[in-house]
Amino acid sequence: MSSPRIPPSADRPDQIDTTERSSHHPDAARIRMLYVVGGGPGIADRVDVSDLFATRLARQGFEIDWVMEDARPGAAWVATHWRGAKAFVIHRSRRRGLAGKLLTKLREVVGDLRVGWLVLRGDYDVVQVRDKFLVAVLALAAARLRGTKMTYWASYPFAECRILDAREGRSRLPALSLIGGKTAAWLLYKVILPHADGIFVQSRQMLEDFRDQGISPDAMTPVPMGIGEHLLEHPGGEVVPHTALYLGTLNLVRRLDVLVEALAQVRTQFPDAKLTFVGDGDVPEDRARIERAARALGLEDAIEITGWLPVEQAHARVCAAAVCLSPFYPTPILRSTSPTKLIEYMALQRPVVGNAHPEQSAIIAESGAGICVPWSASDFANAVSTLFADPAGAEAMARKGRAYIRGKRLYSLIAAEVAARYEELLRPSRASVAGTTAADRPVQSDPVGKVSRRPA
């Protein structure tokens, strides 16, 4: 099993690209935003940040200043540029070990305080915080003093994840993780979300989960993951028969050893079947769990873990796979996700096998691009074997997937509706649909039905 090194990103914050900021539509309204990107270093390169905000919303008149983290060691707070916009970057400490981790955490706290000052002295129309808690409280307080709107972008249930990791033994310091998770959840549901001017959630399921915590659905707008048009133009490549592929994180919470067990069953019908994992874990144990499962079943030569690859190479691997896999372990923290890998597979015109999951099940059923199964090794194995046995039928499914993405999940469609929501938040009198709420107007690209109005 090989693991090529990750190349440096072409979009590091210290590299300047001024093309996007100057190319917005001349009739677009100017909106000044401070966007604090949480979730860890590298998150700004995710397409729902780099494509949706830094590219498409910038073209529509958004002038965004960024606050983000960089995994590389460096100065604690650096004013620089990222994708043609001003960026404030927090680097990790050069110190190693526990002392380095503590210093890096201290830098984050100091950075949070600096954000409050930026809000107080800046000319922003809106400050948005993504997946962070302490800084969201500070930004909220500063925004109220300044008279600025404050929005929160929730991409993942991080507080619940910390709690679950502590309870299931995945944390190095379970007690600290449990305290941190519960504190973050209290801040999120009791302070941040009830007082935010707008809340953007990753899926309708997340909206339902937040509503169960007492958050009004009127304040929430579901924004599913999308892709750029360039993937629809990908030429594809030669498909290697009897190959399956998984693209994404190998995090332990995803229980990906189920795919190793499934491969063992598939090989009873297709002895040459192989499985590739394109991605890596957050810690060594994530990968080690899969490797142990492969050794236990004698599948070392049938499984490859590539590590993280440049996006072009990763997509080439996807195009060569006969079947692509989208497993989501049925745990509450994954139910609210919006499956990026699924729509990438479909855009690249590959048939998919996924398991039951609120958004994923709906996409597969509506598009006809694959097979949705319960969570078990045998169900994954049966579905993969079905597609291996009928290559023509599998390719027909794959074509349906690309057609679905073209009409539902392009960021050119999503960006226009997200921009309209910000316009509504900032200028309520210009709202185009009087008497409706954000939850009634999710982006049209979201394939799941209307939000159900359950009794309280």
From TrEMBL:
Tell me yes or no: is Transferase among this UniProt entry's keywords. Answer: yes
Domain named Glycosyltransferase subfamily 4-like N-terminal is located at: 54-226
Q: Where is this region: Disordered?
A: 1-25, 433-456
Q: What InterPro entries does the annotation carry?
A: Glyco_trans_4-like_N
Q: Does Transferase show up as a keyword for this record?
A: yes
Query: What GO molecular function annotation could you give as one example from this UniProt entry?
Result: glycosyltransferase activity
Keywords from the UniProt entry? Transferase
Q: Where is the composition biased (Basic and acidic residues)?
A: 11-25
**Mind telling me which residue stretches traverse the membrane in this protein?**
none
Q: Name one Pfam family in it.
A: Glyco_trans_4_4
Record's protein name: Glycosyltransferase family 4 protein
